[in-house]
Amino acid sequence: MLDPVIQTKRLTRYFGQNGVVRDLDLRVPPGQVTALLGLNGAGKTTTIRIIMGLLRPTRGRCEVFGQDSGQLSPDARMRIGYMVEGHFLYPGMRVRDCAKFQRAGYSRWDDAQFDQIVAHFGIAQSTYVAHLSRGQRAGVSLALVLAPDPELLVLDDPALGLDPVSRRALNETLVEFAAGGQRTVLLSSHLLDDVERIADRVMVMIDGRLQVDTTLDDFRSRVSGYVVDSESVDTDRVAAIPGLVEARQLGSRLHLTVADADEETLAAVERLNASSVETIELPFTDSVLAWLSRSREQQSFISRTKTGETA
Amino acid sequence: MTTIFRKELRDIIRWVPLGLIVIGVLCYQQRSMHVLNALQHWFCFAEQIVIGSSLFALALGLLQSLFDLRTDSRAFLLHRPISARDIFWGKIAAGFVAHSIAWGVPLLATAIYLESMGPERLPVAWSDVVMPAIFCLVSFLFHPAGMWMACREARWVGTKCLPLAVPLIACISVGVLSGGLAPMLVLAFFAGLIIAISWLIVAAARHAFTRQTFLPSPANVESWSWPNALGLGIASTMVVLVATGFLVALMLPQNSSMPTTARRLAASSTGQLWELEESWKSPRMRQDEPIHRTGRPVTGDESSVALVELDEMWREQPLLSLPDLLRPMSFGREFVYRSSTASTDNGGSLHLIERDNQLYVYGDYSGWVGTVTPQGVFAPNEIPRGAFSNLTTLDRYRGASHNHTSIGGQRLLADDNGIYQLDFDTRKLRKLSDTPTAWMAITLPSNDQPETSLWAYGNETVSRFSVRPLTEGETLPLIDSELIKATHQYPLAKVEITPTGTWPLNWIGKDDESRLTVVSTDEGGAVIVANNPDGTWTYRIGTSDGALGKAITQPRIGTLVVRDGNDFFVLPPGVSAGFSIVAPIVSQRAAQTVSGLGWKWVLVTLHSLIGAAGVFLLIRSRVDSAGARTAWLVIAVLLGIYALLAVIAIYPRSVTEQCTACSRRRRVDLDRCEHCGADWEIPDGSGIELIGLRDVSLADISQTSTH
């Protein structure tokens, strides 16, 4: 039994009157790649900023390596690699200046690794950051966070704006980084395909609350999909299906995504009086999308039913 | 920190040329062309430079803060194995270096320029830039103040900018120090104030940079900082005081029922001292405005003499105060202006300027024309021998109604070794007496009294000399002649002086602020007046037979302007109350003002109550602790409305939500409802949560409250 690297207790953060993160209980286990998923505005970046001690919670607690994240010591920060959303770097610096600037204070710094990653992205060390493409900036950012050989890697949307080749390079790097099971990665992303490839664990945030927090395998096994013929379906009974995450109309068929389906769930599906009921295996991306689309009510079948748009 | 310093310096060094240009242009604009201009140079120079360097420091502070307030930039900067405090100091150090270059280079160039010019062309030296340099150094406080302003949380731009008022106090304090006029205790106070303000600003800026920008609420204990609160409190009070003062000044002309009253001391044509009380309606006395004037002769027992109506003739009676010309403004300066004379052999003016205890003589545009020492007058190409010891000059006549007549011609000088007369046209200095002299005054002949007397004070003794023209048969012109009245210039001829009396006078001269002035009387004697450091006046009547009257100390009169007690109401109630307690001790007049307020005390009390009520409403939702609330109520009673802005600035409004237990608005940053103590309810689940088995130990996070 290992202590979590990151854990929060009823973490809440307001911006003005808006509660962006609410009562978040989150635990990131060591030695795993954990993906934090959610729509824009779900609270992922705010959560990461609180974890990194760059933002204080309105209430609740957050600990990293057992320390209050708001009081992280320089030694604790040395153990954490943090890639900022948007791959921020100082535009007036050359790539080698970035390394020189970043290495200050670190007891470990692997020049060879930095050079290797930078070279992998095809970047000359004498290039000014202002002249780099977004993908190249991501490469330099990745090199900067990996060179100190951190125990914990926190990446805020690292693949943002990357081309497919760069994305693949990033994914491979992360897999390699976490391969020994000694290092922990927490990344937020919108790219579900990439997450499926590299993550051991998935968390889904909706409107500042954690809706999913489990291993990738557990998530796959606990999400079920059904396709029913919608022409004869009693739509009033759809919302009554236990564990219904999403009901989505595709042509004349209704696609249902259900969490933790059991016999009661199946009975409820039967009660829809559909002419046909088919059990399908949901891809990971569709399963996650089912959760994410719940926070956008105008896209939800249930909501449209409530407002009478399709009734 | 070194890495941060280098990075910050590299970022802002590109802005230094801009600062160099601005401050360089100001230096160029203020270059001296004339001898009198050169003497005032350092002050105008410092005044201009401090504005330029303050603005540049503020710009640097903002440049080093605003870009780093972007979340990505801030995250990139702060997440490194260096404490936020070290990052802050790195920024400050870089800003200091950049700022120092921006003002240091122009000032260095100016110092070289001044040294290359002086003293042959103008009375200037490199040391003239010392005081401007101190001003510039202190103006750097606008840099951390800018960071403080940028980083602190404030919803309104007005309260956001409040920190900028704090370094102004430090700059004003440097201005007071640069005059060098106040007693040492006051100077020490202002020096201490500059140090305290500097610490306050830097500590508040550090707190704002390391804490405030990412704190959610004022209730968090980490958001509290004494320097921040103290600085904002001082700034708020200052801003409201200035704003209220402006409002009162704007409103007064429209209200003719509020006359302005001033009290002053004047001498009658016979030399009798009178205390005048003058009232007029406009805030500033207009030339043609009728003035209600009453007065009474100064006897030392003012309660026994009633105020009488005085006629318009008294308007011309000059105010009896000692001009600052007597006080050398020499702090940090090599050259000290002594006097000028209009009578020279080349038709221009000569300016006598003291440097290293020698008197340098400059023509208007002819540069340095000679040096005067007790050994004689030396040409610029000669090496002057000898030096004065505590030189003083006699440059003005301080008679009753001819207060501002300059004495030209053969100038009288004095020092610890005697009294001299300078004839620069013939390049000669004659010693008239061996009497050690610290200050001099003269009574000149008039239609009322023919005698000319020179009064000298030194070694706690006043000496009177009879003054006669050196040339046989020549007479000294009358001070009330039409020519002298028109020109305000008295051409003093070559004279000889004969001692006619001495008086021990140990009640003045104890402090640098005490000065001697002499007013002639119709009896040929003089009223000897000393301006005491505490603002009171002491005078004695000295007569021609050597007698000296009883020393009478007059309560503080000064030029206190009282607008029917309305200024008093504008002050914070605590200050008014304190003043009313202290006033009877320091000044009988001030005590009368206080006692004459009558029903206006109701206004003062009302002001206090309004302030307390306003603060009470504000702190209800902003301040947690009962102790802090009580303290703020006490402050509000003392400061009145001045406390309101301070509360708003220090405690931003809290975010609230309706409590599900008691239905009242509760603060979101507190773990428990401040009204009913209820905890936050755990939100209802959506029924589709997929929370896997925790494969780590569920170590309980400390339940310790953040509050």
Tell me the radius of gyration of chain A.
22 Å
> What kind of sheet is the major sheet of chain A?
6 strands, mixed
Helix content of chain B: 25-40%
Q: What overall form of chain B do the CA principal axes indicate?
A: flat
Total beta strands of chain A: 14
The class by helix and strand makeup of chain A works out as: alpha/beta
The helix fraction of chain A, in percent, is: 25-40%
How much of the polypeptide of chain A forms β-strand, as a percent range? Answer: 25-35%
Unreliable sequence segments of chain B: 318-330, 507-514, 555-564, 695-707
Count of β-strands of chain B: 28
Give the overall form of chain A.
elongated
Please give the alpha-carbon distance between the first and last residues of chain B. Answer: 32 Å
Name the assembly state.
heterodimer
Summing up helix and strand content along with how strands pair, one would put the structural category of chain B as: alpha+beta
Give the mean pLDDT of chain A.
85
Topology (SSEs and partners):
The complex is a heterodimer of chains A (311) and B (707).
Chain A: E1 6-15, E2 18-28, E3 33-38, H1 44-51, E4 59-64, E5 67-68, H2 74-78, E6 80-83, H3 95-102, H4 111-120, H5 134-146, E7 152-156, H6 164-178, E8 184-189, H7 192-198, E9 201-206, E10 209-215, H8 216-222, E11 223-229, E12 244-250, E13 253-259, H9 263-270, E14 277-280, H10 284-292, H11 301-307
Chain B: H1 2-12, H2 16-29, H3 35-66, H4 71-78, H5 84-117, H6 130-139, H7 142-151, H8 157-160, H9 165-179, H10 184-210, H11 226-251, E1 260-267, E2 273-280, E3 292-297, E4 308-309, E5 336-341, E6 350-355, E7 358-363, E8 367-373, E9 376-378, E10 392-394, E11 396-397, E12 405-409, E13 411-415, E14 418-423, E15 428-433, E16 439-443, E17 453-458, E18 461-469, H12 482-487, E19 489-492, E20 495-504, E21 516-520, E22 526-531, E23 537-542, E24 552-554, E25 561-562, H13 566-570, H14 573-586, H15 588-595, H16 600-620, H17 626-639, H18 642-650, E26 656-658, E27 665-667, E28 690-691
Parallel strand pairs in B: 12-19
Antiparallel strand pairs in B: 1-2, 1-25, 2-3, 3-4, 5-6, 6-7, 7-8, 8-9, 10-13, 11-12, 13-14, 14-15, 16-17, 17-18, 18-20, 21-22, 22-23, 23-24, 26-27
Helix pairs in contact in B: 1-5, 2-3, 2-5, 3-5, 3-6, 3-7, 5-6, 6-9, 7-10, 9-10, 10-11, 11-18, 14-15, 16-17, 16-18, 17-18
